[in-house]
What we know:
single chain; 4-stranded parallel sheet; globular; 7 helices; alpha/beta
Amino acid sequence: WEEIARLGVPIFWEILGLPDSSEATLLAQLDRLDRWADRHPEIPCVYTHGFAPGLLREPIPEPVHAILHRQQFLIEVLYPISWGREHEYPYTELEGPLRTLVREVGASRLVWGSDMPNVLRHCTYAQSLEYLRRHLRTIGCRDVDNVLSGNLRQLFGIEG
């Protein structure tokens, strides 16, 4: 981890509730990630695939809350790949969870992901982009362009 920190390489975390897919196991894995982050706060991270909407309801479980409030983490907003299995575009039910993310994390730490080409099972690429643009504007988020690209450009040191 010292070499990763020295190089400034961001770590992309995909946390699954393994060995089973229960919420309790996922929360235990998030607690483990939080303990890792305690030891390595200088390593930039992206929490991929984001948090399921059910984990963003009050009260937010402590391991989720802990990761949301770690400044070293960007949180990916990637709902169509999972939410689209059972919900129709434009995913209006996601407005509440998105509002929670903006409130808890701020737009400066949210990043959009498409999961192309897998998302095509549930919506088009354009829809996977537009649902987020639409909902973020609806909840008053002024930094939509940063969520869609600017925050990752900054993470990788890519200009304009």
